[in-house]
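>> received
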Amino acid sequence: MNVNIKMLSNDPEEIKRVQKFLFDMIKLEFGYDYVPEWHQDIVKMDEYYIDPKRNAFFVAYSEDGDIIGTIGIRAYDKDFKQFRHLYSKETTSSIWRLFVDRRYRRCGLASKMFSVAENFGKENGYSNIYLHTHHTYKGAFQFWAKMGFVTTLDEGDELETIHMEKYIKKLKISPQASVLTYAIKI
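>> returned
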């Protein structure tokens, strides 16, 4: 199966399709509908993901053009007191809204979606990526750990919130004498 991953543009009809997918996934996965204080980025996708140059939202499409996955990356914009000394919008990106349609799970799509977002972060000068998830979301913690994230704070609260981060490694790759040989300087 061929999957096409594209950056979301400011096409009102496509934004509506993505919003519907996101709210359907939230209802399916978490059992609740729109919550204004939690979902402003979905309602105002242009302000959060499309207009800012260092932010993006990626959408995976099936061969038939159906939306089957999403992920957003944007400059860190939270104000958690415990992270004020660690993160800034200049150096830290954050991951949002990684969802994969249940029919397309366990085939590497989420990993590929994250890879696309991480590469976008590298290209836009971020040095690390922040996210938070919850122990109650089946498989989420394990997935993010597999992607190279480490726990910075496990709040132990009723939502079982876990804050995680990953440093983005920037590699300088220089071609050598042979086209097939590359030297990597870390």
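>> Residues 12-30 form the longest helix (19 residues).
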